[in-house]
Amino acid sequence: MKPSGLKILDRYIIRKFIGTYFYAIILIISIAVIFDLAEKIDDFMEKQAPLRAIVFDYYLNFIPYFVNLFSALFTFIAVIFFTSRMAYNTEIVAILSSGVSFRRLMYPYFISATFIAVLNLALNLFIIPPANRVKIDFENLYVKNQYVNVNQDIHRQIMPGTFLYMQSFSTNNQIAYKFSLETFKDGKLSSKLISDYARWDTVKNKWTIYNYYQRNISDSGEKITSGWEKDTILNVTGKDFSRSSSEIEAMNYFELNKYIKSQKLQGADNMEEIYVEKYRRFADPFSTFILTLIGVSLSSRKVRGGIGLHIGVGLGISFSYILFMRFSMMFAIGGMLNPLVAVWIPNVLFLAIGLVLYRLAPK
Q1: In what helix (H) or strand (E) does residue 75 lie, and over which residues does it extend?
Q2: Phi and psi torsions of 268, nearest 5°
């Protein structure tokens, strides 16, 4: 069989792969929605969430998020399930005996994997973030309490040479407590402002500083001013201290890059988590190819125990992949691993496992 062009066998495998993938999604998503509804129905009733909002604002946006989160698992289950059935029915043996190489047999599998990977990439970069925004707004209103920033001792560089410090920031009333601002010129302190608290005014888009004390230092001497209240414009807003990790997930690719740029300028101390989110959006779709390779190599051999053994081993490998990915991400967020390395380590490791299984697969 020539490698160019789609043959009957290719269309058969692609149809089986894509069909089983979406069937697994529909089945597992249905179960997930039922369990999620059972868990949150008391919140919905207590806070009188409208039925339309539950269906269209929450669950309609919950589904693509959940699908993308476990896409690797769905892919692996689909490959293991229908390939092991083909092996059990001796279809794989018949295909290889007809002169089709195992390498050529992988051709339709990787066409299907490419379709799923591109779909996942589009979901990650552009479709899921706005869906997450609607879902998060619904959860904040009807399910859980408003996000509260619990960070203490916040230090930021809001522009070159200008540093901001606050003991804490309240997201409820947009107030920064024990607020101070320092400006340096040529490595020397030129201005320092200290205040009891500062409030971010969402209407004026300005900071109002209360009970402040300011020192201005120059070559001619030092000038001290104080007062009860004054407005000022800074290169930072209250939103910059109110974002949770879930809100970062609600940014599309361009918004995330813009946010990273602003956070780097401000010297934010949570950059690892943001970089993990950025790199994860590309690493997750790539895992589709790796798990497809492992799935085909593992389930193409007819073994005693049949489909059940293949599915059991496959689920073990897929869950170990997901678990390893989560552990490496936690190490990156904790600052013990480079975010790029942490996100791609599971793919590299399981690619090596896939290549070994491919060499051992029946030819």
Answers
A1: helix 71-88
A2: -60, 150
Which structure tokens are listed for 21?
């993938």
Instruction: Report whether 310 contacts 316 (CB < 8 A).
Output: no
Burial of 353 from C-beta contacts in 10 A (0-12 / 13-18 / 19+) = middle
- What confidence tier does 2 reach under pLDDT thresholds 50, 70, 90? very low
With a CB cutoff of 8 Å and minimum separation 6, the contacts of 340 are 275, 279
CA distance 62 to 70: 13
Nearest Cα neighbor of 292 from 86, 23, 78 is 78
How many of the other CB atoms lie within 10 Å of CB of 201? 13
Report which of 353, 278, 358, 357 is spatially closest to residue 320, judged by C-alpha positions: 353
Contact between 170 and 177 under an 8 Å Cβ cutoff? The reply is: yes
Residue 254 CA, distance from chain mean position: 15
The amino acid that residue 306 corresponds to is G
* DSSP reduced 3-state for 18: helix
Phi first, then psi: give them for residue 145, nearest 5 degrees.
-70, 155
First vs last C-alpha separation in the chain: 15
pLDDT at 269: 65
- Residues paired with residue 201 on neighbouring β-strands, in sequence order: 206
Q: What would the pLDDT profile of 23-66 be if each residue is shown by its tens digit?
A: 988 988 899 899 999 999 998 998 888 999 999 999 999 888 88
- Three-state secondary-structure class, residue 266: helix
Q: Summarize pLDDT for 139-187 with one digit per residue, the tens.
A: 888 886 555 555 577 888 888 888 888 888 887 778 888 899 999 888 8
Helix axes 128-142, 60-69, angle to 10 degrees: 120
Spatial separation of the C-alpha atoms in residues 275 and 325, rounded to whole Å: 15
Cα separation, 253 vs 259, whole angstroms: 10
The residue with tokens 């967020």 is 333
199 with 174: CB under 8 angstroms? yes
Measure the CA–CA gap between 158 and 177, rounded to whole angstroms. Answer: 17
Task: Please state, in angstroms and rounded to a whole number, the distance separating the CA atoms of residues 220 and 203.
Answer: 39
CA atoms lying within 13 Å on the CB side of residue 316: 7
Smallest CA-to-CA distance from 165 within 87, 80, 266 is with 266
Chain position carrying tokens 């001497």 = 221
